[in-house]
Amino acid sequence: MDVKINIGDPKTKKCVQKEIKDTNVFLGKKLGEKIEGDSFGFAGYEFEITGGSDDSGFPMRRDVEGIGRKRILAVSGIGMKKSANGVRQRKTMAGNTVHEKTSQINMKVIKAGKEPLFEEKAEEKPAEEEAKKE
Fold this sequence. Notes:
- The protein is mostly beta strands.
- The chain has one helix spanning 127-133; strands spanning 3-9, 14-20, 34-36, 46-54, 69-74, 89-94, 102-111.
- It has one domain.
């Protein structure tokens, strides 16, 4: 199963999305663990897993142990909208461990490699503008 990874770089404040076919690298990893980029195509990089979601869209939460979904009584944090003081809601959250049904993983860069993570976009003029000038 393909997994989408979102990689954020705190230094440049940019994010890049990639799709990875081989998910065995991530299986069993928990939120907050560090992972080497060499194992999935980012030589020299080191990443920290910060979040994600499962195949149904439920967010992974650090304080929910395991791989399944659990209904927790939450006050604030991931997956919660602040409505009023003291209000608690029972919400379904995914566990903090990456498993087969995880569809998205969010990571941040801890150590950068030699090659740039983000490609600079060259500003191209549309063909219509060039035709009007001639």
